[in-house]
Amino acid sequence: MQSHGPLLPLRSPWSSPIPLPLRHRTSFPTKPLCLAASSSFTVSDGELESRGFRVRRNPGGLDVAALNEVFARVGFPRRDPERLRRALGHAGEAVVWIEELAGGKPVAFARATGDGVFNAVVWDVVVDPSLQGTGLGKAVMERLVADLRATGVSNIALYAEPRVVGFYRLLGFAADPDGVRGMVLSRKNFQKQRKTR
């Protein structure tokens, strides 16, 4: 995956902070975080249900093996299931996924990690290739961003491959705003750096 730095949302007004920090959790609440009004979404939860999908707002009930299958179909690397479960635990309630009503398999997914106060980074945004272009990616991203904003998080970053930058721009993200550049110390760069020493 090639990164061109984080895409950050353009500044816009948002509601006053609600003290709901994202925490490391081993169990997840049964009530969704859902702090934003569903009327603010392009596609409502009801419309998604009428199309055979259900929005989920925490990792409870998420089939990690099925999510790994979606990752593989979009070209992401498969993740070790236990490490993926730990990553989901660190995301706490900053997880939005859409499942098929028939079968309960995930078809769209996004998560974020952060400090729960100022900053968050969005990770692993995927939509099953057979359903891309149907609004599911926008549905998970609108809800994830709204939930983060409702907790008071105002700086939301993500990494995007060049082919999907336009998608994120339509959601209000901007590449390198105000000249700010993202930098990454990845495993690949770290190994390269060690070889040159």
What does it look like?
With 197 residues, this protein is α+β, with helices and mostly antiparallel strands. Helices cover 29% and strands 19% of the residues. It has six helices and seven strands. The protein has a five-stranded mixed sheet with strand order 2-3-4-5-6. Strand 5, helix 4 and strand 6 form a beta-alpha-beta unit. The protein is globular, with a radius of gyration of 17 Å. The two termini are 25 Å apart.
Strand/helix succession:
EHEHHEEEHEHEH
Largest sheet: 5 strands, mixed
How big a fraction of the residues is strand?
Answer: 15-25%
What would the average pLDDT be, to the nearest integer? 82
Question: Can you tell me the residue ranges where pLDDT is under 50 for at least 5 consecutive residues?
Answer: 1-6, 8-35
What Rg is obtained from the alpha carbons, in whole angstroms?
Answer: 17 Å
User: What overall form do the CA principal axes indicate?
Assistant: globular
For the largest beta sheet, what order do the strands appear in spatially?
2-3-4-5-6
The number of distinct β-strands equals 7
Total helical elements: 6
**Which percent bin holds the helix content?**
25-40%
